[in-house]
Amino acid sequence: MMKKSLKPFRDIIALALGHLTVFKHVFKRPVTLEYPEKKLPLNDNFRGEHALVVDNEGKLLCTACGTCQRVCPSFETIEIEKEKNESGKFYPKNYTIDLNKCIFCGNCVQYCPFGAIIMTKEYELADEKKSALKLDINTLKKNYSDSIIKKTVKSKR
Amino acid sequence: MEYLYFLYIDFLHKYNLPEFIGMATFPLLPFCMVAAALILVVLFLVLMERKVLAFFTQRKGPNRVGPWGLFQTIADAIKLLCKENITPTGAEKFMFNLAPLLAFVPVMVVWGLIPFSSEFDFMSYSVSALLFMTIASIPTLGILLAGYASNNKYSLIGSFRSVAQAISYELPLVFVLVSIVVLASSLNLRQIVLAQISVYPFCGWFIFPAFLGFLIFFICATAELNRCPFDLPEAESELVSGYNTEYSGMKFAFFFLAEYAMMFIMCAFMATLFLGGFLSPFGFYLSERFIHNDLLAQVLVYFEQVFWLFLKTFFLIFCMMLVRATLPRLKSNQLMGFAWKVLLPLSFLNLFFICCYKYFIYAK
Amino acid sequence: MTKNRLKINIGPQHPSTHGVLRLVLELEGEIIKSCEPVIGYLHRGMEKMAENRTYLQYLPIVDRIDYLSGFFNSFAYCNAVENLAQIEVSKRSQYIRVLTMEMNRLSSHLLWLGTFLLDMGATSPLFYTFRDREVILSLFEELTGQRLMYNYYTFGGLRHDVSDDWLDKVGDFVKIMPKKIQDYEDIITNNPIFTTRTKNIGVLSKNSTLQYSITGPNLRATGIRVDYRNSKQETGNKEHNSHGLGYLVYPELDFEIPTAKTGDSFDRYKVRVEEMKVCLKLISQCIDWLKSNTGEIISPIKQHLLKVPEGEFISNVEAPRGVCSCYVKSDGSGNPYRVKWRTGSFYAVQILPKLLENTFYPDLMAIFGSLDVILPEVDR
Ligand code: SF4
Ligand code: SF4
After folding, report:
1. What is the Å distance from ligand 1's center to B310 Cα?
2. Which CATH architecture has domain A50-149?
3. A103-119 burial string, b = 16+ CB within 10 Å, else e?
4. What contacts 24+ positions apart, CB below 8 Å, involve B24-33?
5. How large a percentage of chain C has pLDDT more than 90?
6. Residues C33-88: pLDDT tens digits?
7. Is the confidence at residue B203, as pLDDT, over 80?
8. Which ligand is closest to the CA of C151, given by its number?
9. Which domains are present in chain C?
10. Taking a C-beta distance cutoff of 8 angstroms, is the pair B325, B50 a contact?
11. For position C233, what pLDDT does the model report?
12. Are B58 and A31 within 8 A, CB to CB?
């Protein structure tokens, strides 16, 4: 323990050191990112809006197996209408994801046995209408082709 | 002053205006100038504060409205003007509306007392330093009223704190002022500045003999202005926004304006007392040295003096902002203890020292 | 209530209650005579939610219990399920878990430091800590896909491996971080205003911390060296040596547990700052191990078909705000029968009335802020 009589001096030194440390930051570059103009680069793992993978022939990879429904933590988010095609395989006639309920956990993507669903890097999803956040099968397909064009996801084929 | 007056009459003559109009309007001019300058300075000051704090924290600060964010404060002011003026139910209406004015008007008045240059001091009395201190303490009354009238517990606590703080910090402030008065042998602010002229540039400034006094004055001024670390009356983590919690729109803008204007004026006052006011730090005026046109130089000297005063003021304001960026807030009892147990004895010491100094050195 | 007492409501919307806590205070002048915390504004039914979800479906939700340290909740739950279902976790995933959790602890403490100092009135440190926290969050985003709700652990492993590139980035961060921590300390630790405001304020005695089940840094600030990461406890109290000590690979790592003496606000601050340094040490050890060793991290089991045999388990994790325990009871089906959470902040709020009695009103922030309470964790 230092002497008590020295305390005022130590206090003054500490105060001066504090001010200097703050002042030092004037000379550093700002770390602000001006958001709408500049955006943080996103990496491949990013979990944004969903998309359904379409193969080269324009067919969906999805087989309407329903695994994604079963792993989704929020109920009734994913709705699938199953149908059989001519060759006897199942395909989704309609496939909707309700982003109002989705918590973007990525379970559906992780556990889909066919890699048929992915997440794009779109995250600015705000809209005036709630219904705009209900993605039907066409929007999900379009999301995929859009992100292929924007090169935000790697083509699956 | 006379010189400017004749210049003004001359100017009017050119447009064939009779002299009595000049006589009638000339005394009003300074006040218009003061008011306009005050508003401009405050607008700039708010921007400066935000920018400087941003630089201290590696941000960019406002940069959307206008180039470099210059019009940000104007946009904010317009926003405040457009907002609804809410008077809470249960509030004491008359006092609630009076409080912002009471905080704002004295600030406008004291602004006129600062000697901006050796000629422009709009109100020059033999006791202007004393008058300054007296009027500058009135806004506290406005704060007390605001807290009392808003019918809000946070406001009430905030205003109590403000008054307690103002009372305890006024004392050391005045004692330091007394020491300056002793040094300058005058209560007139212009005389105080002129007493700081010396043969060597800036050596005559009173900050050198009264450095301790300067520190005390700086601390007390920060406390008087309710700025961090003494911003207890509006400590947002405890009292939401303190005494102005219930205010909105223009009335809030008045408080806001008064606060920043007072900050500028206090710093200008400090610059006047300690940093040689409008004196040039080089010992000569640049315009005298470099402009050979006599008439122009004579006018420009006044503006240069204003420039030096503003430069010193802004330096002090910058220091205040640095303090704000660094220090945490004091506690109320700690605050009182600091004023009565540390600052007041130190200011006595300072006064004693200055008196000795004056007696032994100046008296010869 | 006597006549000259002022009753004041702090919150639920107030700048410094860190969420939606409501404190009903009775003031006499500026002295707090009584305090009554009112909680529950953020209740989301976390425990009930588990009962109608499968084990996997519940996993993304647990991140939201304490959104500042999602990995800890995730791990507590995973650990309980893994122990019940007897799933092995490979060494490499254990190391990655330790690495991510320590980074999370660091980010959580950084946020606490910034907001605590903001409550005390110092503005700049907030921005500095957020600047540094931002780096951690970006790293997490790169690894897991999201900044706060990671959902990265799975039963028996992890979602994907870390890349060497990412490890290098973490290594760079660890290298610059000590300087930053030194900056914070320069600004605040010896500042006379700060020290007088926090020293001998809000003193928690050893006894009352144990009575009120305070854990984590708040407990260690009183001088009791209890930390679930450490397998060798020095309490002398046999009851504390329960299971769950030295979980994961912590026993293999070299670290000390910072403690302080008096248990006042300043000590709590000091312990957390020291803990940040310990975090850095642990992170760099994990990086070294991960760079030189490889291993499997994807768990072999089918996550979404997981059925857990009957039984119950409590897993304890040393989270940044005290011990976070997760109790899982299984009835053999695919859904947990009961999940119970125990989180550190809840107990810290519980002791507030006792701590705040007869203190000054401005001390409220110095005490409440230093306890590091976060409301979603209290209300769950
Ligand atoms: S997206 Fe995948 S998991 Fe979902 S139904 Fe289609 S194939 Fe099955
Ligand atoms: S991201 Fe999660 S919540 Fe959203 S649809 Fe997929 S599984 Fe459901």
Report:
1. 70
2. 2-Layer Sandwich (3.30)
3. bbbbbbbbbbeeebbbb
4. B30/B112, B30/B120, B30/B122, B31/B112, B31/B122
5. 0
6. 888 888 888 888 888 888 888 888 888 888 888 888 888 888 888 888 888 888 88
7. no
8. 2
9. 62-330 (1.10.645.10)
10. no
11. 55
12. yes
Tokens linked to C343: 């989180």
Query: Do C191 and B236 lie within an 8 Å CB cutoff?
Result: no
How many Å apart are CA C181 and CA C18, to the nearest integer? 23
Model pLDDT, residue C266? 86
What does the angle CA B14 – CA B18 – CA B19 come to, to the nearest 5 degrees? Answer: 95
* Residue-averaged pLDDT of chain C: 82
Pocket residues for ligand 1 (CB within 6 Å)? Answer: A 62-68, 80, 112, 114, 116-117
- Contacting chains of B (3 CB pairs or more, <8 Å) are A, C
Joined tokens for residue C133: 């926290």
Average pLDDT, integer, range B190-198: 79
Structure token digits, residue B364: 């010869």
Residues 227-256 of B with CB under 8 A from C: 228-229, 231-232, 235-238, 240
Cα A89 from Cα C305, distance rounded (Å): 24
Burial class (CB in 10 A: 0-12, 13-18, 19+), B355: middle
Q: Give pLDDT tens digits for B296-308.
A: 777 777 777 888 8
Cα B212 → chain centroid: 20
For chain B, what is the mean pLDDT? Answer: 80
B5 Cβ partners below 8 Å, 6+ apart? B22, B26
Q: Is A15 on the interface with B (CB under 8 A)?
A: yes
- CA distances in angstroms from C54 to B279, C16, C156, listed in the order given: 79, 37, 16
Residue environment code for A34-59, b if the CB has 16+ CB neighbours within 10 A, otherwise e: eeeeeeeebeebbbbbbbbbbeeeee
Rounded CA gap, B254 and B101, in Å? 7
Cα–Cα distance, C273 to B147 (Å, whole number): 39
Any CB–CB contact under 8 A between B119 and chain C?
Answer: no
CB–CB of C360 and B328 under 8 A? Answer: no
Cβ–Cβ gap A107/C56 under 8 Å:
yes
Query: Are B103 and B262 within 8 A, CB to CB?
Result: no
Which pLDDT value is given to residue C242? 52
Percent of chain B past pLDDT 90, that is, above it, reads 0
Kindly identify the ligand whose nearest atom is closest to the C-alpha of A106.
Answer: 2
Look-up: residue for tokens 């359904």? A52
Q: What was the pLDDT predicted at C240? A: 47
- The domain ranges of chain B are 1-82, 90-362
Q: What pLDDT was estimated at residue C241?
A: 47
Range with the lowest mean pLDDT among B65-74, B224-233, C80-89?
A: B224-233
Query: Model confidence over C210-260: pLDDT tens digits?
Result: 888 888 888 888 887 777 777 665 554 544 445 566 677 777 777 788 888
Mean pLDDT of the B87-99 span: 81
Q: C26 with C32: CB under 8 angstroms? A: yes
Whole-structure pTM value: 0.85
**How would residue A154 be classed by pLDDT, with cut points 50, 70 and 90?**
low
Least CB–CB distance from C304: residue in A17, A18, A70? A70
Q: Locate the domains of chain A by residue range.
A: 50-149
Rounded distance between C-alpha atoms, residue B204 and residue C281, angstroms:
56
As a whole number of angstroms, the distance between CA B130 and CA B181 comes to: 10
CA angle C101, C105, C109 (to 5 degrees): 170
What's the CA-to-centroid distance between A79 and ligand 2, angstroms?
12
Q: Is C15 on the interface with A (CB under 8 A)?
A: no
